[in-house]
Amino acid sequence: MSQAQKNSRDLSAALVMSSSDDDDGDSSVVVETRPKTKRPPLYKVLLLNDDYTPMEFVVAVLERFFGMNHAQAFEIMLTVHKKGVAVVGVFSHEIAETKVAQVMDFARQHQHPLQCTMEKE
Ligand code: TYC
């Protein structure tokens, strides 16, 4: 079943009244429905190219904050260098925000203009 199909099953409880109900008595009935199962939205963390940040610094960022090995980090760094941007991970909103803040802080501490952003998937 697709996520869209799962979401379409996520119905709230319905309040049902017969046509004779006048809404001031005790004749309303709450009909039990399926529980909500919506997953939280995911966010892509993006790394942007610039002309000044050293390649080895970007590789170190990808190893340190995104758990990549050296070969993976080098490959993604080169993708950003050539294409201008790459997705470096997909996370919950809170984790994505933390990753972006960590990268931006680390770059600022080292006086590099490296930019990291997030967007809803
Ligand atoms: N373009 C940079 C250089 O030539 C390297 C670089 C790669 C910078 C990836 C940022 O996200 C980046 N030194």
TrEMBL record:
Record-annotated Adaptor protein ClpS core domain positions: 38-117
The record's subunit annotation is:
Binds to the N-terminal domain of the chaperone ClpA.
GO biological process entries: protein catabolic process; proteolysis
The family line of this record is:
Belongs to the ClpS family.
Q: What does the protein in this record do?
A: Involved in the modulation of the specificity of the ClpAP-mediated ATP-dependent protein degradation.
List, alphabetically, the InterPro entries matched. ClpS, ClpS_core, Ribosomal_bL12_C/ClpS-like
- PANTHER family registered for this protein in UniProt: ATP-DEPENDENT CLP PROTEASE ADAPTER PROTEIN CLPS, ATP-DEPENDENT CLP PROTEASE ADAPTER PROTEIN CLPS1, CHLOROPLASTIC
Q: What keywords are annotated for this sequence in UniProt?
A: Hydrolase, Protease
Q: What is this protein called?
A: ATP-dependent Clp protease adapter protein ClpS
- Give a Pfam family name: ClpS
- Region (Disordered), start-end ranges: 1-34
